[in-house]
Design brief:
- The structure is a single chain.
- The chain is of the alpha/beta class.
- The protein folds into 2 domains: 2-187 and 337-343, 3-Layer(aba) Sandwich (Rossmann fold), CATH 3.40.50; 188-335, Rossmann fold, CATH 3.40.50.2020.
- The chain is built from 9 helices and 16 strands.
- An 8-stranded mixed β-sheet has the order 1-16-15-14-13-10-11-12, sandwiched between helices. The chain has a 6-stranded parallel β-sheet with strand order 3-2-6-7-8-9, covered by helices on one side. It has a two-stranded antiparallel sheet with strand order 4-5.
- Helix 2 packs across helix 9.
- The longest helix is centred in the N-terminal third of the chain and has 13 residues, at 97-109.
- The chain is globular and about 65 Å long.
- The chain starts with a helix and ends with a helix.
- It catalyses: D-ribose 5-phosphate + ATP = 5-phospho-alpha-D-ribose 1-diphosphate + AMP + H(+).
- Belongs to the ribose-phosphate pyrophosphokinase family.
- It comes from Lupinus angustifolius.
- Its EC number is 2.7.6.1.
Length: 346
């Protein structure tokens, strides 16, 4: 479709590379596609516009996000009666506790407006690294957020559909109750498509920084030579070592679900470079980078894999990070827009 091609070309001309993680939504003929009204929060406006550009079946609608003088949310959904009987979705971003509190009232309100069905798209499930209780008194905030989402009111069409990309711990799918239908998607197909476009695509090896990342992603990347790293204790220090695989002469791409400070990735980079990797790149679905930690990752124009990265791919699941790293090598953003558009047709 011309509209899809135009959008794709525009995205390709910038550092934002939009590729499909599944069947493109453009394959759905408009006359057969499910019409969806898509609302969004302030942070996800750009991603929502890209999703709508994928197909004419998605109509964008705005919400008025205001505040009372005391700072509490003052929210209004214009023309609420106009969405009765329609399939409705909300594109959320839970980047901080404050914005979670702003969006939860909207997420609870939309299904009760006599809509045909309700879908919540939450690309990044933010408390996913707080799922374990290692000592009495630890609070598993991931479970608390899952309970909040599990209590979204049922719409006329049934339970809410929840779309999440690469949730941190797979067991978290069992935190959700019976009143919500979690749909777990992955950004790895975006990476595979991008790797196919590289001039040295026949020299790619995939490295996993730990056994957890290997268990999580190796089945999706089984056609690539694999390197597995592991942290071992030497005295009082924990040092990254190569557990299996050979990086010498290869363009090694480190793959994980998310990055925060980036310490593990940098340690992994150094050990791969010391074993002869020709180039080192990285991919994470969720680039969180608190306190501008993305500045730790320099760009390797060639010949310095021990100190910098050739590419660092992230998705646009964390909109605030995207704004910071856009057009700043080695970072490239692979858009989830087409994948989300397809998910809304399920």
């Amino acid at each position: 479709m011309n509209k899809d091609n135009s959008t794709h070309n525009n995205n390709t001309s910038s550092s934002l590379v939009s590729v499909s993680a599944a069947t493109s939504a453009s394959q759905f003929h408009t006359k057969n596609a499910k019409k969806v009204v898509l609302f969004y929060c302030t942070e996800t406006k750009s991603l929502a516009e890209k999703i709508a550009a994928e197909t004419d079946a998605i109509e964008l609608r705005t919400i008025s996000w205001g505040k009372f003088p005391d700072g509490f949310p003052n929210i209004f959904i214009p023309n609420a009666q106009g969405i009765r009987g329609q399939h409705v979705a909300f594109l959320a971003s839970f980047s901080s506790p404050a914005v979670i509190f702003e969006q939860i009232p909207v997420i609870y309100a939309l299904p009760k407006l006599f809509v045909a069905s309700f879908s919540l798209v939450l690309p990044f499930f933010p408390t996913g690294t707080s799922e374990r209780m290692e000592d009495e008194g630890d609070v598993a905030t991931a479970f608390t957020l899952a309970r909040l989402l599990s209590n979204i009111p049922i719409s006329r069409g049934g339970p809410t559909s929840l779309v999440i990309f690469d949730i941190h711990a797979l067991q978290e799918r069992f935190y959700f109750g019976d009143n919500i239908l979690p749909c777990f998607e992955s950004g790895i197909p975006l990476l595979k498509r991008r790797l196919q476009d590289l001039p040295d695509s026949d020299n790619i090896s995939i490295a996993f920084p730990d056994d957890g990342a290997w268990k999580r992603f190796h089945m999706q990347l089984q056609h690539f030579p694999t390197i597995v790293c592991a942290k071992v204790r030497e005295g009082d220090q924990r040092i990254v070592r190569i557990k299996e695989g050979e990086p010498k002469g290869r363009h090694v791409v480190i793959v994980d679900d998310l990055v925060q400070s980036g310490g593990t990735l940098i340690e992994c980079q150094k050990v791969l470079a010391s074993h002869g990797a020709a180039k080192i790149s990285a991919y994470v679905t969720h680039g969180i980078f608190p306190n501008k930690s993305w500045t730790r990752f320099g760009h390797d124009n060639g010949g310095h894999p021990e100190t910098a990265f050739t590419y660092f791919w992230i998705t646009d699941s964390c909109p605030l990070t995207v704004k910071e790293v856009m057009n700043k090598p080695p970072f490239e953003v692979l858009s989830l827009a087409s994948s989300i558009s397809t998910s809304l047709q399920i």
